[in-house]
Amino acid sequence: MAIRQLPPQTVNRIAAGEVIERPASVVKELVENAIDAGARDVEVVTVNGGLSLIRVTDNGRGMSQDDLALCVERHATSKLADDDLSTISTLGFRGEALPSIGSVAHLSIVTAQQAGSGFEIVVDRGRKEGLKPAASNVGTKVEVRDLFSATPARLKFVKSERSENQAINEIMKRIAMAHPDIAFTVTTGQRTALALPKSGVSGDDLLARLGRIMGKDFLNDAIPVDAATEAATVRGFIGLPTLNRADASQQFLFVNGRPVKDKLLFGSVRAAYGDLLPRGRSPMLALFVDVAPTDVDVNVHPAKVEVRFRDAGRVRGLLISAMRAALGEAGHQASAFGGVKTIDTLASSITPSTANASYAPGTAANGNRPIYPARPMRGGLAEDLQAPFDAVTTPSANADATLDPIPADDMRCPLGAARAQLHETYIVAQTENSVVIVDQHAAHERLVYERMKKALGNGGVTRQGLLIPEIIELDDDDAQALADRSSELAELGLVVEAFGQGAIAVREVPALLGDCDIKGLVQDLADEIRSNGQSFALKDKLEAVCSRMACHGSVRAGRRLTPQEMNALLRDMEATPYSGQCNHGRPTYVELKLTDIERLFGRS
Question: What separation, in Å, do the N-terminal and C-terminal C-alpha atoms of the chain show?
């Protein structure tokens, strides 16, 4: 078959297939045009998921009569000065959006640079009509009706109205986050899905805009990020590690004001949070990266959702260091959501009938079914739990009590003063305006882990010899794998050697671990080496191995602590970065505000 040149109408429809994937793509292109035109108020209205109608109205600069006639021609743009693709500073620049939309739908554009003296142009499924005068305010109104009516096959791939509305809302949320100085209103059908007034572009104003989109939880638990190098700057807010989600849908990344989904940037987020998150969980964040236009290529993806950096390594390093610094400055801070959620759950379980009833513990108000099971408390009565605080005792060797303990009645410290230990697992502390409940094992696990990482950075972990070497029997392969890596283990403070067939002798352990479960530790390390194959190198997973060791060397649940030990643990948590979550990403403590507790009892 002979080669022939396609007619313009077919070319435009092919281009529309690349640019206009779904109604949300139309919304994105039109709103970006409004932003590039200097708009400060943008209104989006859709009907039937955007298939019947998409209307975008802005108060930007508007277009002249000549520009209006030219804007619906292919590759016609006002945004590419001197044809220089290396210095793109606008959101759109290809000049494909409007002609592509006009080729597959009914497109109407009304614009004016002066109030009352505007013009209108209509493109009906690729057929352009002439300009005509139209009354209009300053700015531009674009209406797209009967989307994909010229390409019925595309309608088969459009999802439900609800799904398309959701996609439009997601696009608009990302754009609104990147431009807090612009007011946005989005109406889908009869529902106002988004109504955001304009605000400032930094600090509390930016956080307020992010909070309206990402939710109250993020607003309460966000920490600021602000760093810069010669290569780039990064600013924004990231959530505490204990505020996480099952997927990365609440991670928003922007480059030069453009929402992107870039693998390099998402990889930097995972590297920065590292072991602070539970496995399979993702943090919440909104970060804005700014680089010189010449140092980033935004033309590598048809929808411009991916970018390519000239110096990707330096940008990645800046992101990781900035996020880690912010997380480190947060110190022991944990999500405020945990305590609030606990209070709300308890409050929702109290009904008027049970709240006002008079009954004995373990007996229902009507005398029939128990409301809660009567269980003996492992630590005895409250007086038994408080008794250690009335006597002077010697701190245990398994807890770090090197810091001067604060007086029991001093509640000015962030985590307060220890008041009791429940079930030999949870430390109850009192601050000036809250109650703090600490998981002693999880908290001490993080403290030991951070000390081990610090020791590794200072040249190695201090070892302590065992008076009698511990002999541990293992599978032959596991014993050999540990013996083969004895030099690497020694750097971590664990000295082992082969002891005949299927056995390992442990001669020294990390001093930080104290009286730990050596057998359990060695078995866990053997399991980890086996699961990662023969190529597994401990040096490549130092933090994972340290985490494993710290778990075995921390204060275990079920162990009675003295008041000095409990207060020393609280003070260490306040001085140790990342102590708001354990090595597995779970929270180490929950804080219940006094006002929330009073609300639970109906006192507020």
Answer: 83
Instruction: Give the pLDDT confidence of 95-136 residue by residue, as tens digits.
Output: 678 888 988 899 999 999 998 889 999 999 888 998 999 989
Residue 480's CB is within 10 A of a number of other CB atoms, namely 15
Distances in Å between the Cα of 539 and the Cα atoms of 258, 489, 546 are: 39, 9, 11
pLDDT at 446 over 90: no
Which residues have C-beta within 8 Å of that of residue 54, sequence separation ≥ 6?
A: 23, 26, 27, 30, 44, 45, 46, 142, 143, 144, 147
Instruction: Identify the residue whose tokens are 């110096």.
Output: 311
- The model's pTM is 0.69
Q: Which residues partner with 44 through β-bridges?
A: 56, 186
Max distance between CA atoms of the chain, in angstroms, equals 99
Residue 169: φ, ψ to 5°: -65, -40
Spans of all domains in the chain: 8-196, 203-329, 380-604
Q: What is the pLDDT of residue 363?
A: 42
pLDDT of residue 13 exceeding 80, the answer is no
Give the confidence band of 168 by pLDDT, cuts at 50, 70, 90.
very high
- CA angle (151, 153, 155) in 5-degree steps: 85
**DSSP code at position 538:** G
**How are strands ordered across the β-sheet holding 251-255?**
222-228, 233-239, 285-290, 251-255, 258-260
CA separation for the pair 211, 257 (Å, rounded):
18
Pairing of strands 183-188, 41-47: parallel
Chain centroid to CA 222:
10
Fold of 8-196: Heat Shock Protein 90 (3.30.565)
Assigned architecture for domain 380-604 = 2-Layer Sandwich (3.30)
Residue 409 CB-half CA count within 13 A: 1
Q: Contact at 8 Å (CB) between 466 and 506? A: yes
Q: Is 236 helix (H, G, I), strand (E, B) or coil?
A: strand
Q: Write down the CATH number for the domain with range 203-329.
A: 3.30.230.10
Average pLDDT over residues 535-540: 50
Which amino acid is located at 21 in the chain?
Answer: E
User: Residue written as tokens 């079920």?
Assistant: 558
Predicted pLDDT at 442: 86
Let me know how many helices (H) and strands (E) the chain has, helices first: 20, 25
